[in-house]
Amino acid sequence: MSSLQIRESQRWRETQLTYDGALWSFSKYTHAVIRKGHSLVVQLCAQIARDLGYRPTILDIGCGWTELYEKLQHITGTYIGVEPSVGQLMRAESRPNQYLIRGVGEKIMLRDSCVDIVLHIADLDHCYDAEKVIAETFRVLKPGGHTIILLENRGRFSNDIRRLIKMEISHGEEHLYYFNVDDIRSLVEPYGKIKFLRSYGFMLGFDAVSKVLPEKIIEGLRSVSDGLMGFSFPKKGQHFIVSATKDMGSDPASLGFLCSNCGASFEWKEKQCLECHHEFKWMRENILDILHEETPQVHST
Questions:
Q1: Count of domains for the chain
Q2: Residue 121 in contact with residue 37, Cβ under 8 Å?
Q3: 91-112 per-position pLDDT tens digit
Q4: I need a labelling partner for 139 at 20 to 30 A (CA). Which of 28, 81, 85, 157 fits?
Q5: Helix/strand/coil for 263
Q6: CATH number where 262 lies
Q7: Do 127 and 111 touch, CB atoms closer than 8 A?
Q8: What is the pTM of this model?
Q9: Rg, C-alpha atoms of the chain
Q10: DSSP alpha helices (H): ranges in the chain?
């Protein structure tokens, strides 16, 4: 491992294993932009469920405390949440048809072709190896399955202005990547096709202004600006969302969990793998911990 990889590995451990979204505070305008993104995720998932004709199996990578489950439970058949942070997972409530795993997107311990939807909601820029995460995403997706990716946008208008006036463009120590739309397109295209693309959040410098305005006015202004700008400039908003579909190929499989040690199938809540006798670690009796405070490289094949 190079010195650069070691530094990145340390930064990943320091920022992700103890990440707690409750510590972050946002302006009223940024909250409005986040709500818009979540609304689009729910709309896309609901449309996929209608097209499928059944409640889909949804895998949520970087699920945090499963906030999105609250918004999706009315259309979800089975929900699997994957999250590296102990603190986030311990805040999650136990729900029927819900499986929680302390792990990473670089190695998803599920069978091939067994998931209808994979969500990457503001998580891909936190991952250690984004290419491997996307490869794993499409491995576990059923043929014709969908991944929905939502991110802050390196290609936003405000960054164009920063370049013009020679200001630094940064994305915070907790992010290992800073993507634009074309970056995501290049990651996805070896495995599938982008079917939906939209960016939103076009009101430059509105974080400060939003401090003195009521939330309803902020939401209205955001909605108007997104309506005017979003379709004309799908790559220039503060955030963007894409939905991509996996190419057709192998037959779909039923949902199944794999041992992180040998890759054999096992039943949820078993104490050890029947093939290799690897003992599983469980948090709060219903959260499988396959991470054990290690970097994603330890779990890579």
A1: 1
A2: yes
A3: 999 888 999 999 999 999 999 9
A4: 85
A5: coil
A6: 3.40.50.150
A7: no
A8: 0.91
A9: 19
A10: 3-16, 28-52, 67-72, 86-90, 130-140, 157-164, 181-188, 206-209, 215-229
